[in-house]
């Protein structure tokens, strides 16, 4: 498949994701250490960041500048600045989103997401509930996991 065809397929799939995302709740439910009103979230986030972090959206594949970042450092939650992922655990999954084979200890929470005809594992910041992405079982050793994360959910801090 040519790159252009692949990108078009992914972008069309993004429309389906947006459609099915509207069928369930936004941002992780529960009690979190960091809470804000909808107005506070909207004031601190761009429209795209709000859609992803608070409404469980998905950014377009290959759109994040963090996708190709190779510098040493830590990826923090855009919603509350909690350190989430180390650059040592980042790898190129070929999917178009920043990918990691594990998170930092006590950094993320998970819940089932059954919006696309099958159940995926959604991951969110354990401190503020902001949506990060999904975890799949097709990653590299030693965990075999692929944390497929929206770049707009992250802030990179160089070591």
List the helices and strands and how they pair.
Blueprint: H1 3-21, H2 38-44, H3 47-55, E1 73-77, E2 83-86, E3 90-91, E4 99-100, E5 108-113, E6 120-125, E7 131-136, E8 146-149, E9 154-158
Antiparallel strand pairs: 1-2, 1-9, 3-4, 4-8, 5-6, 6-7, 7-8
Can you walk through the features of this model?
- The chain has three helices and nine strands; from the N terminus they run H-H-H-E-E-E-E-E-E-E-E-E.
- The radius of gyration is 15 Å and the shape is globular.
- The N terminus is likely disordered.
- The protein is an alpha+beta fold and 159 residues long.
Task: Give, in spatial order, the strands making up the sheet with the most strands.
Answer: 3-4-8-7-6-5
Overall pLDDT level: 87
What can be said about the biggest beta sheet?
6 strands, antiparallel
**Given the structure, what is the number of helices?**
3
- Give the quaternary arrangement of the chains: single chain
Overall form: globular
Strand content: 25-35%
Strand and helix order: HHHEEEEEEEEE
Structural class: alpha+beta
Distance between the termini: 38 Å
Uncertain spans, ≥5 residues at pLDDT below 50? 1-25
Compute the number of strand runs. Answer: 9
**Helix-residue proportion:** 10-25%
The value of Rg in angstroms is 15 Å
What distinguishing features does this structure have?
159 residues, alpha+beta, 3-stranded antiparallel beta sheet, 3 helices, globular
């Amino acid at each position: 498949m040519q790159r252009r065809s692949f990108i078009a397929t992914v972008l069309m799939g993004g429309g389906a994701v947006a459609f099915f995302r509207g069928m369930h709740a936004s941002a992780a439910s529960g009690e979190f250490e960091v809470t804000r009103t909808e107005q506070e979230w909207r004031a601190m986030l761009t429209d795209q960041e709000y859609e992803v972090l608070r409404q469980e959206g998905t950014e377009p594949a290959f759109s994040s500048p963090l996708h190709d970042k190779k510098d040493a450092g830590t990826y923090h939650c855009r919603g509350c600045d909690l350190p989430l992922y180390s650059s040592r655990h980042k790898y190129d999954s070929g999917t178009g989103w920043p990918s990691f084979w594990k998170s930092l200890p006590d950094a993320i929470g998970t819940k089932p997401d059954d919006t696309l005809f099958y159940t995926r594992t959604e991951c969110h910041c354990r401190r503020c509930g902001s949506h990060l992405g999904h975890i799949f079982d097709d990653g590299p050793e030693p965990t075999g996991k692929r944390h497929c994360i929206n770049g707009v959910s992250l802030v990179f801090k160089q070591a």
